[in-house]
Design brief:
- By secondary structure, the protein is α+β, with helices and mostly antiparallel strands.
- It has a four-stranded mixed β-sheet with strand order 2-1-3-4, with helices on one face.
- Helix 1 links the parallel strand 1 and strand 2.
- Helix 1 crosses helix 8, helix 4 packs parallel to helix 6 and helix 5 crosses helix 7.
- The protein is globular and about 40 Å long.
Length: about 200
């Protein structure tokens, strides 16, 4: 079977795609890329392939390139309205509105604090309410987590590095332990950590 190529940066959002590919045991290789200003990927070769200069991108064996994390994660799993809704929520309400400004060095401290105080609590409340009633945001037919769960896991991991409040809800902590205990998640974290340290 032909292999896919995941274009990724360590501990960027591409980690969510990395988690899904490992969980599904799909044949793939990773091309690690370094990010520059505005989180854009350095290098003209990648810019020629993906003018957005962002990760993740997934090159299919037939040469088709998927970009945008929601598109990639939705493509990798059976179509589901619930899955698409959670992917969209995480992309707009957590990734872009919260994580983007929080981890952008150009964000003024007042703006960063406003995101933490005003935007983060209602976002976490929506996620927590779902996880109070279910082990994952969206379960596959076999009861396994889906791409939205990998995306949320990555987002929560970043939030932990920022030492923000609101992450101690029992259901959030149980969700993170549930994902972390999966064999493929342990493997992905080890690979991402190794690559991160190699580029420091």
């Amino acid at each position: 079977m032909s292999s896919m190529t995941l274009f990724a940066s360590p501990f960027a959002a591409s980690m969510a795609v990395h988690l899904v590919l490992e969980q599904q045991a799909r044949p793939f290789t990773i091309e690690w890329l370094s990010r520059g200003p505005q989180r854009q990927i350095r290098g003209e070769a990648y810019a020629a392939l993906n003018p957005k200069r962002r990760v993740p991108a997934l090159l299919m064996p037939d040469g088709e390139l998927y970009t945008e994390i929601t598109s990639i994660l939705y493509h990798l799993e059976p179509p589901s309205r619930a899955h698409l809704e959670w992917l969209s929520f995480l992309a707009t309400e957590l990734h872009q509105a919260i994580l983007g400004p929080m981890f952008d060095p150009a964000t003024p401290e007042a703006g960063r604090q406003d995101v933490i105080d005003r935007l983060l609590p209602p976002c976490l409340a929506v996620v927590t309410k779902r996880l109070d009633d279910a082990p994952f945001l969206v379960e596959s037919a076999t009861g396994a987590p889906m791409g939205a769960d990998a995306y949320l896991y990555w987002g929560l991991m970043l939030l932990h590095t920022a030492n923000v409040d609101g992450l101690r809800a029992p259901s959030l902590q149980a969700f993170q332990r549930r994902i972390s205990s999966l064999d493929h998640a342990e493997q992905v974290l080890a690979v991402e950590r190794r690559q991160f340290m190699a580029t420091r």
